[in-house]
Amino acid sequence: MTLPLDKMTKEEKLQVMEDLWVDLTKNESEYPSPDWHKDVLKLREKRISEGKEEYKDWEEVKKKLSKHS
Fold first, then answer.
1. Residue 14 above 90 pLDDT?
2. Phi, then psi, of 6 in degrees rounded to 5
3. N or C: which terminus of the chain has fewer CB atoms within 10 Å of its end residue's CB?
4. Of 18 and 69, which is predicted with more confidence?
5. Is the pLDDT of residue 65 over 80?
6. What is the DSSP string of 1-52?
7. Whole-number pLDDT of residue 13
8. What is the C-alpha separation between 27 and 65, in angstroms, rounded?
9. Would you say residue 69 has pLDDT above 70?
10. Which of 57, 32, 53, 33 is nearest to 44 (CA)?
């Protein structure tokens, strides 16, 4: 399958990405997480606890982005 990316709007492309993600995560156990993910998550937790990083809620970010499009 080939998508007409050059003819799709940004919103259509984002929707396709969202749909793919939802589909992939239906059967998460089929896609084991690589070992290095654990290390990355530990580092991020440490940086958050030290006040060196901050993360935003994905739903809030999507709302903000959609307001600016």
1. yes
2. -70, -15
3. N
4. 18
5. yes
6. ----GGGS-HHHHHHHHHHHHHHHHTTGGGSPPPHHHHHHHHHHHHHHHTTS
7. 96
8. 28
9. no
10. 53
* Token pair in block for residue 27: 């059967």
Length of the chain in residues, anyone? Answer: 69
Q: What percent of the chain has pLDDT over 90?
A: 68
Q: Which residues are CB-neighbours of 53 under 8 A, at least 6 positions away?
A: 44, 47
The DSSP output letter for 68 is T
Count other Cβ atoms within 10 Å, centred on residue 44: 13
Is the separation of the CB atoms in 24 and 30 below 8 Å?
no
Contacts of residue 48, defined as CB under 8 A and 6 or more positions apart, other chains included, come to 54, 55
pTM: 0.46
